[in-house]
Design a protein that fits this description.
The structure is a homodimer of 315-residue chains.
Chain A lengths: L3 H6 L5 E7 L13 E6 L2 E7 L3 H7 L7 E5 L5 H4 L2 H10 L6 E6 L2 H12 L7 E6 L5 E5 L3 E7 L7 E7 L5 E2 L1 H7 L6 H5 L4 E2 L5 E2 L1 H4 E2 L6 E5 L9 H4 L4 E5 L7 H7 L4 H10 L4 E5 L9 H8 L5 E3 L5 E3 L1
Chain lengths: 315, 315
């Protein structure tokens, strides 16, 4: 068993994305269909779950059992056909913790029946939490993190997901606190925004006793989508963006027709959103050499990488 | 385009099995779940279709579009969760030919709904042909081949499949035919069993004018199953058998509990059935080194190989 201190040193600072699949509609010899795991301080969130996701999970170092929430962007098979198999395997591995599936509401009408048909003896609960992908909605919220679903532009209703850490309390400036005689029992109140009144009645403002906390880190998953300026405001300044890059620029017409993006559109979006970094994904099988996609994107937005299976990117 | 003669020389004599997946219930880093393709003279039949089957198909040399019939042994996810994705991909690849799915009747109650939910615009028909896995039933029959489903012993109703070529007409003995003056227009009748009456009234029996045809080749798929002597009579003398070998002999208790077979039981079955060759499959993920399974089986039935992904065995 790992000790608490090991957890502190590693997991508690983690914000990383592991790609399980980054191909488009049909699997290719190179890529699995869409799925990835977002690990935020040891809490694991899965985004999309195409066929073969559990196979990829097994090949990765991701701790299966720690995935408690799955977010599904839309109801195309390459984003959700892996759910049933994963639920089955979770059951076989003895899972008892509930599994939360956040997806367009409509999915439940079929998934509930599938679960009933295939699993009479599932020992954990599948908790379905439907949302409307046409609206911007907070789909997950805890003490330190918010996940917001927001509309993308695809052939069917489709959501992107913004993972954003909540800003933590400001850090106490220990030297200043000692100087003004702040008692230890009062630290929390001051870190959370309080001022301090010294024995002589002088009010020492919060800002003189603290250093501002780092802003919360953020990650935006934007797939599948055509160029979608409507989301820019929401994801402004995001630390990392994963964006649909099904096609190269020369296939822009095809991208338009299928409501996907080109490398150029993905990069342009990252630039307009003032993202810090960009991961390109959801590649069409037509490109034997995907470096064309990378070259086109980096010309516009240099901080770009190509997704690939088992790639892990940390923020 | 391949010419007719190329087809003649290769496909028209083919009887081969390609393994797409041979792991058991949960996928492992080593194995995909159950699926294989039986190619008989260029007609392609899929047997079982676990999650990831289409991924494996893409990596194999099997011609996707020529699969017209899929046989499903039972309704556990590791044998049928790949169907939906494959149907989807067939659609995306422009299939128009109907796809026949032969499976336990019950499957249709969920599959029909899934197809309706996910595909509004499928351009080919999925023709479902249900059967009762508790009975021995001919599930496919054409001019040259019969596929028979027969009961296995598993936790849920489960069928094995016997592929058997029909015996062809006897071969004409050209020398004898010339000697007795058989006219060319009468050849077919004689090959199919007729006698010949010479000009002087002498009856030359069929057996004097022909050489017997080779007996039809045969393949039995027996997975998932506990030791199942009830099928022996049906598959007697089979050229090739694929048999459940989930466990090693030391795990016989576990095999019994889960209605699977050990290596020893698989080999014993092949011996009792007087099979010519045996492929072991459906391996539990617990064996890092599967050679223990092979060693145990070959001690009883030497003509044994371990299944592995992309293995092709010809009869």
């Amino acid at each position: 068993m790992r000790s608490f201190f090991v957890l502190l040193a590693t997991d508690m600072e983690k914000f990383q994305i592991t790609i399980l699949g980054c191909g488009s509609a049909t699997p290719s010899p190179k890529h699995f269909t869409s799925s990835q795991v977002v690990d935020i301080r040891g809490k694991l969130f899965m985004v999309d779950c195409g066929e073969g996701t559990q196979i990829q999970l097994r090949r990765s170092r991701v701790a299966f059992a720690r995935i408690n929430h799955i977010f599904i962007s839309h109801l195309h098979g390459d984003h959700c056909f892996g759910l049933l198999g994963m639920i089955s395997t979770f059951g076989l591995l003895g899972r008892t913790a509930p599994l939360f599936i956040h997806a367009p509401q409509q999915l439940w009408s079929i998934l509930e029946q599938e679960i009933e048909f295939y699993y009479h003896d599932l020992e954990f609960k599948v908790e379905f939490q439907g949302f409307d992908p046409a609206k911007t909605t907070v789909v997950y919220d805890d003490r330190s993190l918010t996940v917001t679903a927001f509309p993308l532009r695809h052939r069917v209703p489709c959501a992107g997901f913004l993972f954003r850490e909540k800003p933590t309390a400001d850090h106490l400036d220990r030297e200043a606190a000692d100087f003004y005689g702040v008692p230890q029992w009062d630290y929390t109140r001051i870190k959370e925004g309080g001022d301090f009144t010294a024995k002589d009645g002088t009010v020492i403002p919060h800002s003189s006793l603290t250093k501002p906390a780092e802003p919360g880190r953020s990650y935006a998953y934007c797939c599948d989508t055509a160029y979608n300026p409507s989301m820019i405001q929401l994801i402004k300044g995001v630390d990392l963006m994963y964006h649909d890059c099904t096609y190269a620029d020369e296939d822009a017409e095809r991208a338009k027709k299928h409501f996907h993006s080109t490398s150029v559109e993905a990069a342009r979006t990252a630039k307009e959103a003032e993202a810090k970094r960009l991961i390109l994904g959801h590649f069409s099988a037509r490109y034997n050499d995907e470096s064309i996609l990378l070259d086109e994107a980096t010309a516009i937005f240099p901080e770009t990488v190509l997704a690939k299976e088992n790639l892990t990117v940390s923020i």
